[in-house]
Amino acid sequence: MGSATIFFWLQLPNVTKNYRTALTITGIVTLIATYHYIRIFNSWSEALTVASKDGGDYTVQLTGAPFNDGYRYVDWLLTVPLLLIELILVMKLPQAETVSLSWKLGLASALMVALGYPGEIQEDLSVRWFWWCLSMIPFCYVVFTLAVGLAEATSKQPSPAAASLASAARYLTVLSWCTYPFVYMVKSVGLAGPAATMYEQVGYSLADVLANAVFGVLIWAIAAEKSAVEESGKLLPN
Amino acid sequence: MGSATIFFWLQLPNVTKNYRTALTITGIVTLIATYHYIRIFNSWSEALTVASKDGGDYTVQLTGAPFNDGYRYVDWLLTVPLLLIELILVMKLPQAETVSLSWKLGLASALMVALGYPGEIQEDLSVRWFWWCLSMIPFCYVVFTLAVGLAEATSKQPSPAAASLASAARYLTVLSWCTYPFVYMVKSVGLAGPAATMYEQVGYSLADVLANAVFGVLIWAIAAEKSAVEESGKLLPN
């Protein structure tokens, strides 16, 4: 995540002004994720200890300190609206549409994360499902808006290469986003204890790398391709 | 806050020279806030402990170490005058007016913070109210000057988009500033103990995000819009 941030920011001079705000935000998303993954790492290390008794096998034990999954939700509360905004910005829609889409998708996605958290910290399975269902309402709205909106935007890209990248961003968005509700269900189907928490953490972490870093690389590729088209356009007579 | 700093500074090359000082200061405000929030976070962590006894529910307990709210006042003493100056600079008033307004509002707002602190660290309710009232004198002067001055400045902005952003900055200033005296009153109306401190900290933190980071984004948007107007003006014959 941290390396992705540095990559995006060092690429800023290589794209035209039109895409610098998108690329700046792309790097901020992975920076915020880097910070929270360090917090999650430290919380995980404090909650678990690995030790060998009398030279025997190493075993993992709970230390009694809580593993705080709240860091992940604070991370999402900040990064999810921002990564939707970076996607909207790189599409370079008319300004009024950019502003209205950013507000609508940004607020809906923040609501989605906020509604997921009360269920995530619950042991009671029916309460978990209740919040999962509530959170799925803004989730479906955002994913549907993206799938439709990106299909439209794809056809308006200035070159075949940009169109194929925008189409890849569309599939990656739908794929990575749909991972989260399934990982959330790991504990809702009755799995519990440290093993379930481990599967959940692995799932969320993989989905985050796809949705933040890999997705960011696509945003950069779109910005670079469109910058190249704009710059070659300047040199040609109309 | 830290992400906001990086965003503002990475945007420096994208605005004209006229707005770079404002944008630099905008990033300094959120940087100072980042530093103090790390201090506040550490002080909070040292004052409280979360533990589970014998595998039971996790409970929050006081460790006996003090939670030092002084960091917040030192933060405000530096950031509040600076954020008023960033607002004055982005309005691009005549130079004499910029200097005189910066001095007047900067000193009044520093006085406001300094007069608030003696009451904040008091348990005695009447003493809290005494300092609250004293601090409200410079507070009212600053908010009134801003509300009137920004209304005037709004009408002089070079484009409708800049005027609507300046108007948004005006409302956000009044809204975010008015949050503080109410949060201060949480403890003045007789609430006490860790819960009251928690509500107070949540309130101040939300108000700070609005007054520093969100307000800073508005300052950047004004600077970007006015830079675009200035740059397009250069290309056109008058």
UniProtKB/TrEMBL annotation, chains A, B:
Entry's transmembrane regions = 21-38, 73-91, 129-150, 162-183, 203-224
Q: Which SMART domains match?
A: Bac_rhodopsin (SM01021)
User: Which membrane topology describes this protein?
Assistant: Multi-pass membrane protein
Instruction: Report what the protein is called.
Output: Rhodopsin
Q: Kindly give the Pfam families that the UniProt entry links to this protein.
A: Bac_rhodopsin
Q: What is stated as this protein's family in its record?
A: Belongs to the archaeal/bacterial/fungal opsin family.
Indicate the secretion signal residues. Answer: none
Record's superkingdom? Eukaryota
* UniProt cross-references to Gene3D superfamilies, sorted A to Z: Rhodopsin 7-helix transmembrane proteins
Report which residue ranges the record marks as coiled coil: none
Q: Which GO terms describe its molecular function?
A: monoatomic ion channel activity; photoreceptor activity
The keyword Cell membrane belongs to this UniProt entry's keyword annotation: no
* Annotated SUPFAM superfamilies: Family A G protein-coupled receptor-like
One Gene Ontology cellular component: membrane
Chief localisation class = membrane
UniProt cross-references to InterPro entries, sorted A to Z: Arc/bac/fun_rhodopsins, Rhodopsin_retinal_BS
Q: Where does this one sit in the cell?
A: Membrane
Q: Name one GO biological process term.
A: phototransduction
Q: Which UniProt keywords apply?
A: Chromophore, Membrane, Photoreceptor protein, Receptor, Retinal protein, Sensory transduction, Transmembrane, Transmembrane helix
